[in-house]
Amino acid sequence: MTLTIHKKNFIKDGKPFFYLADTCWSAFTNIPENDWHYYLQYRKRQGYNVLQINILPQWDASGTDLNYVPYVLKEDGGYDFTKINDDYFQHAKRMCEIAKEYNFELALVALWCNYVPKTWANNMLPLNTMPFDCVDRYIEKVDETFTQFNPIYIISGDTDLNEEITRNYYNKASDLLREAAPQCIQTLHVRGRLMEIPEEMINRMDFYMFQSGHNAKTENLCMTYRLPEYFVENYPGKPLINSEPCYEQMGSSGRIYGRHHRFNIRRAAWQSLLSGACSGITYGAAGIYSWHIYGKNFGSAIGEGFDMPNPWQQAIHYPGAWEYGDIKHIFNEFQVTELISKQKVLLNNTEEIRVACTPDEKLMMIYLPENTTIKLNYHFSEDDECTIIDLNTLHRECGRIYNHKDICYLDMHVFEHDVLYIIRRK
To answer: Which N-terminal stretch is annotated as signal sequence (predicted)?
Structure first.
């Protein structure tokens, strides 16, 4: 059945659908078919149900021995956007057919920002700027190739939206696909830490994506909850997803020494989910999105300057991918389909701890990155059920609730890492 949206939920086969995506931007250009089968089978076992793929070649994909290009090349190495390479799209179609055999939903990016004038990426690498009058034929080819799979069309990729000419490109692509494929869900993938979406574009979207991104500076770590808070306040009523939290083992952006590890990506996910972006989450691994193999180049000098990734054969086994799958299992186990931020009831002097509850307030989730006693301006009975899940091991503890002078306390846990408190009223 086609994926649909009802209020803040994705729906499939009449049931809420938790959007658990893996980022595989370079699939159509870099992955041989045998490896594609292995990748799909592995991610399916981990619980993933959506793949985010760039239709056109990813600008910072790793080097490859494959030779899939969407347009005839000119002498300067750029694309002749008047001459579509049908073989490329037939190959991409075959990749999608295989993915659907494994029951994945496809989230396909129409125009990554480097192909569109006046974006931050196009300003750096303008060689393959798509002429405006070639957008029509390209979108026609996209519809002809991919709409049969009922994909989510992600109109933009990693883009800023400051310039009118940029917005014109994306509005045109959106309108053409809406006319050609009205049954397909649309959204935008915007650049890291971008909050404000132009009014002319926001109403075109069926759900919203934001990107907390890969920047490790202290002032940007809060984007995992600041962004969903802003979107919920200013663009309410539709599903909301962090479409690009920090990727596992990705080097910090801006050529800053260091990488994002399991704790970093868990924190990014749970802080986003409990701050309003509860319709799903996207995982990413350095080495997977660019499909890196030993001995090949990686564009660390372009974009945000990420350090060299490990090869995909290693990256596919990163433990954080399983932990994102655990998120879906926890939501399903506790029958959570919607969460509302209850941050105002938290009395601890930090915003790192995130608090949310179901609309009927019969269940509350609290993400605790560092151990401390939780204090709430909220009433739970000491007989209510408190489960504490160690997010590193999935071991569980029966938590203790007590009340004193109109304050509800949740005792410290016994684990070493970040945890999730789940309190259910009896």
So the answer is: none
Q: In whole angstroms, what is the distance from residue 153 CA to residue 137 CA? A: 17
Distances in Å between the Cα of 395 and the Cα atoms of 38, 263, 413 are 30, 16, 11
- Does the pTM exceed 0.90? yes
Q: Are 160 and 213 in contact (CB under 8 A)?
A: no
106 and 142 belong to one structural domain:
yes
For 235-244, write each residue's pLDDT tens digit. 999 999 999 9
* Cβ atoms within 10 Å, residue 182: 9
The string of pLDDT tens digits covering residues 210-242 is 999 999 998 999 999 999 999 999 999 999 999
Identify whether residues 378 and 230 lie together within a single domain.
no
Helix locations, 117-250, DSSP H: 120-124, 135-146, 164-180, 199-202, 223-234
Instruction: Report the 10 Å Cβ neighbour count for 174.
Output: 22
Note whether 116 and 211 are same-domain residues: yes
Number of domains in the chain: 2
CB contact set of 255 (below 8 Å; sequence gap of 6+): 305, 307
Residue the block writes with tokens 């000491």: 382
Whether 212 and 354 map to the same domain: the answer is: no
Token pair for residue 41? 């089978």
Quick one: 322 and 352 in the same domain? no
Orientation of helix 319-333 relative to helix 262-273, angle to 10°: 30
Cross-strand bridge partners of residue 20: 281
User: What's the farthest any 2 CA atoms get from each other in the chain?
Assistant: 77
Identify the domain containing residue 344 by its residue range.
340-424
- Here the CATH number for the domain that contains residue 78 is 3.20.20.80
Domain boundary among 333, 354, 385: 333
